[in-house]
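Q: Start with the shorter request: fold the first protein.
A: Done. Sequence, then structure:
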Amino acid sequence: MSEKKKIFKPQPVSGFPEWLPEVRAVEQQWFDHIRKIFESYGFCNIETPSVELLDAIKAKGGDGEADVDKEIYVLERYHKEDGDKEARLALHFDQTVPLARYTAQHFNDLVFPFKRYQMQRVWRGERPQAGRFREFYQCDIDVINVDSLPLHFDAEMPAIIWEVLSTLPGMENEKIQIRISNRKILMGFLSSLTAKDSQGNDKKLSNEVTAEILRDIDKLEKVGLDNTLTNIENSFVRKGYALGSQDLIKPFLDTCKKRYPTGEDLQDTLTNSSEIDTSNVLLKEGIKELSFVLDQLSHLPEGAVVADLSIVRGLDYYTGTVYETVFLDDPGYGSICSGGRYDDLASNYINKNLPGVGISIGFSRLFDRLRQQYKLPVGRISPADIMVMMPSEDRRALTMETAQKLRAQGHKVETFHNPVKLARQLAYAEKKGIPYVWFPPFEDGKSHEVKNMGTGTQTAADPDDWKKD
């Protein structure tokens, strides 16, 4: 008696999405749409390996390295052997580190400014929930140059993203807003502050407390002003500053709560504030850069882009302009597109100054939101334009020849596999959403015919020169 075969019940792996063919077809349509717009601005495509050196990935976490560690998936062999070292490779959690390594490695072969886009999967060890996956697609564009990068590229990024997001199939009625800041404004403000230590002496803010304050302010939209002030107070106390030190930052946070549609609005507010020292060189530089970017985007619809000084971005490699994009009708959903400027991301790989600016679409996060809300266009199960019927077994060769002629004309063609009843063949084409059914001659001397499955009309046709309605 043979042993009964063990059957494993199929079940999805949490955080690793997969779609039915009709949903995957729409996903592919989105990729094609994004690719077309990226390339229309002169961005070239690259693809990098799924893995990078673990140390390189961790190095880009900066002060947030402990948080990055929790998200990294490392690669190890299932069966280790004696002498095997600890994991040295990891799946990349974004595409910025791979870009830095790629640019340094191919430096002598690239033309700068180097404008590239990538549309690849990334992996993060997050707790799966709505809009949060462990494996997901990101669509990135970046511009990298040698020594200096013109500021107009900072303005080009949100212009491209607005064009992409406002025209994606299914996004036509969504209200989105791109929010921009410049980290130099906040860094300049914090560098000009002095606070009392526990002995009552004035001292500048340390790098550690500044880093904590940045992370606290980055959550202002999410947790509100009062909670942000409480978190900042706790940061001060942990680093040895006196109680009440967070009051130094409250006037700036009041400014951060507001949004500014133009560079003029931003400059008027900050320069007229009696509680913010706008003489700080770094702060002035940030205001000037942010105002320039806003003014360069004045051609976009009103409210499409605003300055929001509460945007910091978590990773410390951002040094200037930073971006986030949100749904106005669902602000709690979080950012669907983000990025910013970095001065020297490739310094671990090459002794060159390679500043850049980039922005990333959280593709899977955005796509799944619209899928769950039934806002995606309906896809077809089959990509075929035409299904060629199989009249009988002795006419199989004619069926195949007809399909090849149609493919030669640029059509996507499926042939039915068996000469079963015509009603079954038609039902198959209808279920798969194939718009045309082709009837080869069922008898000698008869003509080809094609049926439009949408209108029901059936007409004579020639496979050598037929064109769709």
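Q: Next, the second protein, separately.
A: Sequence, then structure:
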Amino acid sequence: MNSAARPSVRRITALFGTVALVLAAAGCGGTGSGSADGEVTSLTALDYYTDATEHAQWGERLTACGKAAGVTVEHRSVPGASLVPQVLRQASSRTLPDLLMLDNPDLQQIARTGALTPLDRYGIGADGYSEGIRSAGTYRGKVYGLAPTVSTVALFYNKDMLAEAGVAVPKTWDELKTAAAELTRPGRYGMAVDANATFEGTWQFLPFLWSNGGDETRLDTPQAAQALQLWVDLVRSGSMSKSVLNWTQADVHDQFVAGKTAMMVNGPWRISAMNRTKGLHWGVAPLPVRRPGQPLVTPLGGEVWTLPQSSSEARHRKAARVLACLNDSENMLALAEQYHTVPSRSSVASRYAEQEPSMAAFVKSVQGARARTGKLGVEWPRAATGIYTAVQAALTGEQTPREALGHAQRIASGS
């Protein structure tokens, strides 16, 4: 998915295998970063913004914040799957960059090694951030990373198709099933999700699990089974294609813009492409919940900026100023406008929703969004694996939702 949101999800897989490193470990060292009298004149920054346009845009922002701090910033990027292995290698060789961007579920893994510095040491706090956003950058009660902007998922719908069928935007699961059935036509499904066997599939299922009171700490519950049964019902009724078992979020988007599905679960990183699609009249709303009054709980996507440990206090202070600059209200708003993401400070997000009505559903959903690592920390990947395994087994009919989630719980608990 677009790196502005990245649930983030695909980078965690890098923790479970050997991945070739793209940069030499010494590539992010601090050589050549000071003047003859010891003054810090340059810093290094590492992220996974390898797309040429995005890399250049972040380079400009780092340059501007570096200038405000009195330093130049050497900005390097590696592919997403290579970032965590690279960082772990650099942590062991003490060649970490001065500024490090991490996908928020990866922060726990890196903070556990002792490679990161708590931000409060430099007076950087998380005032004005929702609990979910603070949690995404927190390890053992200390904030180690802050995200300038965040994202989540919502329900996109084709306005013309809903109007033609006389269907209202669904707010409950029953309404969703009814609407999806009425919107289904030859060559068109009513609903689409990403249910593939990756953490991206887990990411899309979480709003249904969490909003119904399900919990990744105990997957074999009636609430979890109800959520999975909803997806099973949509596929069995023909309102949702069996191909969702293999679709990525990009595939779901392609189905939507091609008119092959009337509704989809996706994120705001798709908005730019949809706006460029001629004749596509779309809307977006918060995802439905099982029954009226249930709070919507969605997963939180986005990247946090961190301060790796350094032997130079002077470098640390300069890097902290750059990090604070990246997370100031002005940059939050600029980044949100650039990438269709949600500013992390609630007051800035509210202002943004007024400016960009298409983002209002995401701003509202982020208020109650949760970090995936919020409850399980570094154990989250096992639960995520259990969840997508259960989704696959239930949608193929191999197991009932209850059976599939019982197996998922055994995966999550390591038994």
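Q: Describe the second briefly.
A: The chain has a mean pLDDT of 91. Residues 52-69 form the longest helix (18 residues).
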